[in-house]
Design brief:
Number of strands: 2
Strand order of the largest sheet: 1-2
Largest sheet: 2 strands, parallel
Structural class: mainly alpha
Radius of gyration: 15 Å
C-alpha cells in the first residue's frame, strides 16, 4: 500500500545516495501514512513525513533500470507492468511490520528491524561506500 516498506526503502536510498540515484516509491494499492515509519526513520536522520502514498498507475515515469519489490503482490504487478521493457525486477522478501503486536516499543522494534534489513540490503545491492572522512 506504499505506506511502510517502500517509503522506508526510498528514504534510505535517497539518504545514502543524495542526488545520485533517481528513486520512486509505489504500491499496488494506496494506503495511509504510517506514523511508526516516520518515527523509526527519524531515528536515523531520514525524514519520510512528506511521503504521499502512490499506486503503480500513478507513476508518471518509465524507463527505470531497476525495480525492487518488497511484497509478493507488488512483485507480480511490477513483472506484469514491465513485461515489454528491459528492466531488472528484483524481489526482496520483507516482513510486514504492521502485523507486529505488543507494546509500542515492541511494535517499533518490528519497524526498526525492517528498516535495518532494508538499509543493509540497499547498501549491498547499490555498492554503497561511506563518504571519505576528513
Amino acid at each position: 500500500m506504499n505506506a511502510v516498506r517502500s517509503p522506508m526503502a526510498a528514504g534510505i536510498t535517497r539518504f545514502l545516495f543524495p542526488n545520485q540515484i533517481y528513486v520512486r516509491s509505489a504500491g499496488v494499492r494506496q494506503g495511509e501514512l504510517d506514523p511508526f515509519v516516520d518515527a523509526v526513520m527519524a531515528e536515523i536522520g531520514v525524514d519520510t513525513s512528506r511521503h504521499q502514498p502512490k499506486t503503480f498507475e500513478e507513476l508518471d515515469e518509465s524507463g527505470f533500470d531497476l525495480i525492487v519489490t518488497l511484497a509478493p503482490e507488488a512483485h507480480h504487478k511490477a513483472l506484469d507492468m514491465t513485461r515489454t521493457e528491459a528492466v531488472d525486477v528484483e524481489y526482496w522478501p520483507t516482513l510486514d511490520p504492521t502485523l507486529a503486536t505488543g507494546s509500542r516499543e515492541q511494535i517499533l522494534d518490528a519497524y526498526r528491524a525492517v528498516r535495518d534489513q532494508l538499509m543493509t540490503r540497499i547498501k549491498k545491492r547499490l555498492d554503497w561506500a561511506p563518504p571519505p572522512s576528513g
